From TrEMBL:
GO MF term set: oxidoreductase activity, acting on NAD(P)H, oxygen as acceptor; oxidoreductase activity, acting on the CH-OH group of donors, NAD or NADP as acceptor
Organism: Laccaria amethystina LaAM-08-1
PANTHER family: BENZIL REDUCTASE, BENZIL REDUCTASE ((S)-BENZOIN FORMING) IRC24
PROSITE patterns for the chain: ADH_SHORT
Protein name stated in the entry: Ketoreductase domain-containing protein
InterPro entries: KR_dom, NAD(P)-bd_dom_sf, Sc_DH/Rdtase_CS, SDR_fam
Length: 251
């Protein structure tokens, strides 16, 4: 049987690219989990694709259990679902409830997903893989990105801990770079209100000069790692364009 990989946040951007590559290049069975189903995701529909609509902050356990039962197991888990909202300063009037809602999506859903998937990943004949889609923000405190910075840093910590606790499963966090997705559109539209001028202009300039990463470029690395990430990567935070990821990039 072909390997089975779950992708959260699969309806657009990086998640859609990863789903497409897993299906078309690596011939994997894919469970696409997203809050809603887009026309682009529906275009990929086949016997190898199971689409599940799910709010990752509320119903993820059931979705993953259904996925594992449907395919009699799981081999990989790509944790890509996330939100940038709220863009805010630590000391502004953003209510703490907004920070908590952010963490429900960007961090606590990861814990839920791992708990639900790990029994199947332990039994994977190819060796279970968990790929956390992280960000350079995990290491750099970009002004105006308080919740996002903290959530991605917590993600990387979770990845390291999972690698220690589950040595039979490879867990790796990947920095996809500045990717041409809806997040970048949002940043250009409203980022100036909370970011520093220098940081905001960096993103605007990258878009204007055509330097944003294409989702299928970093997505190829993520898809490949979900199937064949080596033990040496476990617990690591790697950049999609690093030398160590060269074997997993699109040829």
């Amino acid at each position: 049987m072909n390997p089975v990989v779950v992708v959260t946040g699969a309806s657009k951007g990086i998640g859609l690219a990863v789903t497409t590559i897993l299906l078309k290049k690596f011939h994997a069975n894919v469970v696409a989990i997203s809050r809603s189903t887009t026309p682009q995701l529906l275009e990929l529909k086949s016997d190898a694709l199971l689409i599940l609509e799910c709010d990752v902050s509320k119903a993820l356990t059931g979705a993953l259990q259904h996925a594992a039962n449907h395919y009699q197991g799981l081999d990989g888990l790509v944790l890509n679902a996330g939100t940038l909202d709220p863009l805010c300063r630590i000391t502004d009037d953003t209510p703490l409830s907004s920070w908590k809602k952010h963490f429900d999506v960007n961090f606590f859903s990861l814990v839920t997903a791992v708990n639900a998937a790990i029994p199947s990943l332990r039994r994977s004949k190819t060796g279970g893989k968990v790929v956390f889609v992280s960000s350079g923000a995990a290491q750099k405190g970009i002004a105006g990105w308080g919740p996002y910075n903290a959530g991605k840093a917590a993600m990387n910590s979770l990845c390291r801990t999972l690698a220690e606790e589950e040595p039979g499963v490879v867990s790796v966090a990947v920095r996809p770079g500045m990717v041409d997705t809806n997040m970048q559109t949002t940043l250009r539209a409203v980022g100036a209100f909370s970011m520093t001028e220098a940081s905001y202009e960096l993103f605007v300039k990258a878009h204007a000069e055509g330097k944003l990463v294409k989702p299928e470029e970093c997505g190829h690395v993520i898809a490949a790692l979900a199937l064949r990430a080596p033990k040496s990567f476990s617990g690591q935070f790697v950049s999609w364009d690093s030398a160590e990821c060269a074997p997993f990039r699109k040829e």
